[in-house]
From TrEMBL:
Name recorded for this polypeptide: Succinyl-diaminopimelate desuccinylase
Gene3D superfamilies, alphabetized: Zn peptidases (3.40.630.10)
Broadest EC class assigned to this enzyme: hydrolase
Listed GO MF terms: acetylornithine deacetylase activity; cobalt ion binding; succinyl-diaminopimelate desuccinylase activity; zinc ion binding
Catalytic activity reported: N-succinyl-(2S,6S)-2,6-diaminopimelate + H2O = (2S,6S)-2,6-diaminopimelate + succinate
Length: 411
């Protein structure tokens, strides 16, 4: 297909079209249809990859995903994103209807404007500009999911597994998450901490508080275990640096992670009475961990600690774990530098390479290729009146166009 046959996409209008689709996770409501039509018109071969199954929150879900590729040559530069959005919260609290895509004073309002329908639209628009002028010396691809804001069990994770099984090669990937902190292009995310959830149940024996010899109280046992876990220092950060080392030595590491942290998120015995020793005590914790650890290694440690307390107290302790993603770091190199150079040349600021924040689908894509996140300013994501200046959408499109050109020059 010749370049002249491709129309240039307006990032604001495409963002508005996507906002007007109420794709609250895990619903799609036609968001993938809009993208498939748009990308097909740009010469992409589109595959709808639908996966379904238990979500881990009590029901099954059918998740729409899209993998689109234009070209067969290497390198293959991929853009990844998600069309699902979080719920609106109290609609009455919004000053603009969350799914209307209203513009006021040059600012576009709507759920998903920042996270991350605006990012998707900006990359599509950047690709359309490039194709209107010519082509790229390789392939362009899109990996779009409808399951990023939910349990993330049947979205990018499943698509990556399928692509790897097929031998699909992706050489580098930009995820369009709203990575900018205060100003567009001030930050890219080159790594994320892993996340491990653990559910703890201590099984005791119910009885009357006046006759403790006839019962087995699980409450002090779970308190003992939680105190041991909470007191444990997981690490000093990654890379692990001596706090007493010379300042110059500590400053030589440009990208790192803070210390891993374990947080107790709930403790419950489900006991409404004042004169009953409960039969069970339950707790839940989350560990956000840097590359010092793996999910399996932390699970082994938690199981050992529970085993020690179980042996000391004689009460059975049951643990259930779910690791939603491993920690990863895309090391500084050609890809990261190319993105930083392109953003600096376009926006006038060099983005900091950061590992802050929660998890993203980059944790799955890392199995395929080097990955980083570059997108809009995230100040209003998940908030009432989520919004983005239209000028910022156009500026991000400029930056993405420069990123695509620079990455292809250097890969």
């Amino acid at each position: 297909m010749s370049a002249a046959s491709h129309s240039v996409i307006d990032p604001v209008e495409l963002t508005r079209d996507l906002i007007r689709i109420p794709s609250v996770t895990p619903a799609d409501e036609g968001a993938m249809d809009v993208l498939e039509r748009t990308l097909t018109g740009l010469g992409f071969t589109c595959r709808r990859m639908v996966f379904e199954g238990p979500t881990g929150v009590g029901h099954d879900a059918r998740i729409e995903n899209l993998y689109a590729r234009r070209g067969t040559a290497s390198p293959n530069l991929c853009f990844a994103g998600h069309t699902d959005v979080v719920p609106t919260g109290d609609v009455a609290a919004w000053t603009a209807a969350p799914f209307e895509g209203e513009t006021r004073d040059g600012i576009l309002y709507g759920r998903g404007a920042v996270d991350m329908k605006g990012g998707i639209a900006a990359w599509v628009a950047a690709v359309s500009r490039i194709l209107a002028e010519g082509d790229v010396p390789g392939s362009l691809s899109f990996l779009i999911t409808g399951d990023e804001e939910g349990p993330a069990l049947h979205g990018t994770k499943r698509v990556v597994e399928a692509l790897m099984a097929e031998g699909e090669v992706i050489d580098a990937c930009v995820v369009g998450e709203p990575s900018s902190a205060h100003h567009l292009g001030d930050m890219i995310k080159v790594g994320r901490r892993g996340s491990l959830n653990t559910w703890i149940t201590v099984h005791g024996k119910q009885g009357h508080v006046a006759y403790p010899d006839r019962a087995a109280n699980p409450a002090p046992v779970i308190a003992k275990l939680l105190a041991r876990l909470d007191a444990h220092v997981l690490d000093d950060g990654y890379p692990s640096l001596d706090a007493n080392a010379p300042l110059a030595e500590r400053d030589c590491v440009s990208v790192g992670f803070p210390p891993s942290n374990l947080e107790i998120t709930t403790i419950d015995v489900g006991n409404p009475a004042t004169n009953i020793i409960p039969a069970e005590a339950k707790a839940r914790l989350n560990i956000r961990f840097n590359p010092t650890h793996t999910g399996d290694g932390l699970i082994d440690w938690l199981n050992r600690e529970a085993g020690l307390v179980q042996a000391e107290t004689g009460l059975r302790i049951e643990l259930t774990h779910m690791c939603s993603g491993e920690a990863f770091l895309t090391e500084p190199g050609v890809f990261v530098t190319a993105v930083q150079d392109a953003v600096e040349a376009t926006l006038g600021r060099r983005p900091e390479a950061s590992t802050t924040g929660g998890t993203s689908d980059a944790r799955f894509i890392r199995a395929l290729c080097p990955v980083l996140e570059l997108g809009l300013v995230g100040q209003t994501m998940h908030q009432v009146d989520e919004r983005v200046p239209e000028a910022e959408l156009r500026a991000l499109t400029d930056a993405y166009q420069a990123v695509i050109g620079t990455v292809f020059e250097r890969l």
